[in-house]
Every structure is written in C-alpha cells, then in structure tokens.
Design brief:
Structural class: mainly alpha
CATH architecture of the largest domain: Up-down Bundle
InterPro entries: NRAMP_fam
Distance between the termini: 45 Å
Number of helices: 21
Shape: globular
GO biological process, one term: iron ion transmembrane transport
Order of helices and strands: HHHHHHHHHHHHHHHHHHHHH
CATH topology of the largest domain: Sodium/glucose cotransporter
CATH superfamily of the largest domain: Sodium/glucose cotransporter
CATH class of the largest domain: Mainly Alpha
GO molecular function, one term: cadmium ion transmembrane transporter activity
Keywords: Membrane, Transmembrane, Transmembrane helix, Transport
Membrane topology: Multi-pass membrane protein
Strand content: under 5%
Largest sheet: none
Radius of gyration: 24 Å
Number of domains: 2
Length: 551
C-alpha cells in the first residue's frame, strides 16, 4: 500500500492517505488558466472526503435505516440530524487535533497518559507513600487504549460482516437453487468479495480508491433518490419525525441509527484524511461528507417506509426489495439492490482499513512507551537523557509527535501499513466475516449488535477527544462554543447508550421510569465530567477573555 507524503507538510506516520489540497496544481500546465481547473480541483477534493460517506453508507446503514422506516415509519427521523451534527462536531475536532497538534486521537491519548518526564528535575522528588505510588501508576496503565481497541475491533468486525453480507443479499434475492448449490454459491460470492477487499487494500492505490468510492457515493444518492420519490412520502410526517421521540422498543434501533450515521471508525479515518490539509479545506470536506450522509440516510428511511410490516412480521431485506417492486416498480427494486451491492464493496474497504488505522493509532504509541520504559530500567541515566535529547531535537525539526514515537521503534514496525499487525487486523475481520456470512447467521441481528457496540464506543471516543482537546500540552485551540457542542453531544449519546443497553444488561429488569432515571443520571454525570474537563481549571476571567478573543 503506497505512502505518498505531501511535499510541503510533515506526514503523520499513521496516515495511509494523501489529501489532494485544493491549492495544489493537479492539472496540466496548459489547462492552468482554464476556469474548469478550480472547479475540478474542488470536485476531486470533495470526492476524496466522500470516503467518510462511503464508510458510513454500507449494508449496515441501509439495513438499520430501512428497518427504522419499516418498523416506525418516519418517527425516528430525528436521529439523522442529531447524528449528523454530532458527526461534524467530532470529526472537525479530530481534524484540528491532527492539523494543530500533529496527532491522531491515539497519539494524543498516549501523550496525555504517558507525558514525557523531566530527565533533570530542578529539585529532588519527595519520597512517595505506597498509596501515592499506586495512584501515580494508574495513568500509566494503558487500560483506555485496550478498552477502546476492544470496542473498535468487535464493533467494526461485526460491521464488516454486515458489509460482506450485503453483496450476497443482493445476489440471494435473484438466486434460488437447491441447498448444496446454494451453499457453494454463497461461499464463492463471499470468498470473492473478501479476496477483492484484501487485494485492493494490500496492493491498490488508496488515493485513487478514495476518489472511486466518492463516485460510488454519488451513484447511491441518485439510486436511493429515485427509489424514495417513487415510493413517496408526506412532508408533514417527515418534519414531525424530526421531533425527538422513542416509540415502544425503539431505543436499540435509534441508537444503532445514530451510531451508523456518526460512525466511530470515521474518527480515525478523519485523522488520515486531514493530514496535510488546512483547517478550512478540512471543514469543507467534512461538511460535504456529513451532508451527503444525512441525505442518504433520510432517503433510505423513506425507502424503508415502503415495507409496511404486519403485526409479528420481522424486517428482511428481501421482503423490502419485493415490496419496492410491488409499490414502485421493477426499476426501484433493481436500483435498491444495486445500491446495496455498491455499498457492500465501498464500506467493506473503508471499515476494514479504518479498523486497522484505529488499532494502529491506539497501540503504536504503547509499543514506544514499553520500549522507552525498558531502556530506562535497563540502561543508565545517560541513555535516558540521550533519548530525551533525541526527542527534543525531533520536536524542533518536525514538530510531529507521531513521527517521533514511530522513530523510536525498529524500522520494520509491526503497526506500519505493511506490518503484520496492521494487515492482521484486516485479515482477521475478513476471516470472521467469511465465517459469519457462510454460516447463514441472521444478518440483521449481527448489524444491530454491531451498532450497539458502536453506540457505546461513540460517547467514549467523544469524551476521550474532549480530554485531549483541552490538554494544554497538545497545542490545540478549543473555544467555549466548541467545548459546549462536544460536551452536549457526549451527554446525549451517553444517555441514549445507557437507555438502550441497560435493558440488555439487566435482562429486562430495568424498564420504564427506572430506565429513564438511570439514563438521565448517566447523562448528567457525563455532563458534569465534561464540564470539569472543559472548564474546571479555568477562572471566570479566563473564560471571559476566551469569549472576547473568539469574538
């Protein structure tokens, strides 16, 4: 997988993508004076950012959004603007962290929990009690990285299963052979897609892939627009659906719809996409991807309303396709299945790559920390000083902490793009997906389960991001408005996650008013914690001065 750093900007070591800056001349010199050049440059740049939409709009999103429309009509339409606003706030903050501090979220967490000690303290440290030693050791335990990696790996592996299953679902609709041949056909189709995803990610040019995925997103917008308008909808019902409400037994579906629109894995993809760009270019790209995702999500919900389920009937993609054929004609049916197949390939690529990027971001710094501690314990203090000097020299020349971390590792770092760990994550996801799809497990159930994990992961990532953005050592700028938006998003997501997951954990014991109280308490505690992180260390004068400066 080729790495092509931009010529003028230090490249993040974890980045696989090279952003096509709109300020760079990507056209031939003879066409430089043409008015089409800036337009084409903008289009290419936006298609590059459409990778975020491509990773989001997969069979998982199509299934959950269509299920929400089939089960509850347009009553859960409010989840789309909520998730879209949250996505923009979170992705924009991650982009600023990458641009200003030169760190991915994993690198920022590493610096926050593993700050570089002063090798020559001005005064001898005071003796520590046993309790103080235990407390001091807690931040150096990489629990947060392991926990986040576990949630990311489980959630995204289950979601990858859904992406791989999407292609077979579109083939299965037309194929009805005897059981032995049916199983062989399912195995061959699934194996072919898994091998294609692995081949593209291991051998393909990611820059060109991202632009191709952007074109796929455009095709999906056209496809689902035609299907939605053929089915039809009431504008009054659509706008009333933007008022938050939770019909009976809809909390899990609502949480999944939010988690699949504001996809946690995009937090790590955004870091790679933002590398080498200005904040203005990044905001434009994130805004484009967010709007496209919101439009597609609403269109799919409308398409799902065409499948009016009877009492006791469960949602099924094949039934939805047949309903579309009966109500809107053969064209709508074919377009829906084509969109499902296209989304399967595009999301299969981005989810697998994004999960590997996430684990790389969260664990590469821990390898460095372990090696640094081993060197400190086994060698003399002179070696410790030399390592610190080396870090400071790198900081002066590159100002890129992620590069400094990787520089301490061996040249064949296992978390590099071609390393065995990075590729192992991709292979693991594809193997699990192959086994799940060929075994014939319920695809809808797997998708809902993956989004429940994603719904728990999302507020966790938001809170970690809030911590990093307000760490003075990061060198980032976080205004009061940006803090308020991030705290608000984290609070709402936490309350909704608890509301959805608590009945599952308590085996249905927590229901009704008690569930509302528990989720409200969880949201309130998160709100207090977020306020403490964002403004707990600031005086009233500092708070006022920041507002005046931002104005």
């Amino acid at each position: 997988m080729p790495l092509k750093p931009p010529p003028t900007t230090p490249q993040d070591s974890s980045s696989l993508l090279t952003a096509p800056s709109s300020t760079q001349n990507t056209m031939p010199s003879s066409a430089a004076s043409s008015t089409l050049h800036p337009i084409l440059a903008q289009v290419i740049s936006l298609l590059y950012w459409a990778m975020l939409a491509a990773s989001t709009i997969g069979p998982g999103t199509i299934t959950l959004m269509a299920k929400g429309g089939a089960d509850y009509q347009l009553q859960l339409g409010w989840t789309v603007p909520l998730a879209s606003i949250t996505a923009y706030v979170v992705y924009e903050a991650v982009a600023r962290l990458q641009i200003d501090a030169r760190k991915s979220l994993g690198g920022a967490l590493f610096q926050h929990y593993f700050p570089s000690p002063d090798p020559v303290p001005s005064t001898p440290p005071a003796p520590k009690s046993t309790l103080a030693k235990v407390v001091a050791a807690v931040p150096h335990t990489p629990v947060i990285s392991y926990a986040l990696s576990f949630l990311v790996l489980v959630s995204m592996t289950l979601l990858e299963c859904a992406q791989i299953a999407g292609l077979w679902a579109s083939v299965d609709y037309y194929y009805s052979g005897p059981e032995p041949i049916y199983s062989v056909a399912r195995t061959l189709v699934t194996l072919s897609l898994c091998l294609l995803v692995a081949l593209i990610l291991f051998r393909g040019d990611i820059d060109n892939i991202s632009k191709a995925l952007g074109m796929v997103v455009v095709v999906m917008v056209v496809t689902f627009s035609i299907s939605a308008f053929q089915i039809g909808f009431d504008a009054g019902d659509l706008f009333s659906g933007f008022v938050p409400s939770l019909p009976e037994d809809s909390a899990t579906v609502a949480l999944g719809m939010i988690a699949t629109t504001c996809l946690p894995i995009n937090v790590f993809l955004t870091s790679s996409l933002a590398n080498g760009l200005t904040i203005g270019e990044t905001r434009k790209g994130i805004g484009f991807a967010t709007v496209i995702t919101a439009i597609l999500s609403l269109l799919i919900i409308i398409v799902g309303t065409g499948d009016e389920l009877e009492d006791g009937e469960t949602f099924d993609l094949n039934n939805l396709a047949r309903t579309l054929k009966d109500s809107a004609g053969k064209t709508s049916e074919v377009l829906f299945l084509f969109g499902l197949a296209a989304a399967s390939l595009s999301s299969g690529l981005t989810v697998a790559m994004g999960c590997a990027l996430a684990c790389q971001s969260l664990f590469s710094g821990l390898d460095v920390g372990a090696k640094a501690r081993q060197r400190t314990d086994s060698e003399s203090s002179n070696v410790e000083v030399s390592v610190t000097t080396r870090l400071s020299q790198r900081d002066e020349s590159h100002n890129n902490d992620d590069d400094m971390l990787i520089d301490l590792l061996p040249k064949k770092e296992p978390w590099a793009a071609g390393g065995w760990r990075f590729r192992g994550i991709i292979i693991l996801q594809l193997l699990v997906s192959f086994c799940v799809v060929t075994s014939g497990l319920d695809t809808v159930g797997v998708i809902v389960l993956s989004q429940v994990f994603g719904g728990v992961l999302l507020p966790t990532l938001c809170f970690c991001l809030l911590i990093c953005m307000n760490d003075e050592d990061m060198g980032t700028t976080q205004s009061n408005v940006q803090n308020a938006l991030l705290v608000g998003a984290t609070t709402v997501l936490t309350g909704l996650a608890v509301y959805s997951v608590a009945p599952l954990i308590t085996m249905g014991a927590c229901q009704g008013d008690s569930l509302t109280v528990v989720s409200s308490i969880a949201g309130f505690v998160t709100f207090l914690g977020g306020c403490k992180v964002a403004w707990g260390k600031k005086s009233l004068k500092q708070f006022t001065d920041e507002d005046e400066a931002n104005v």
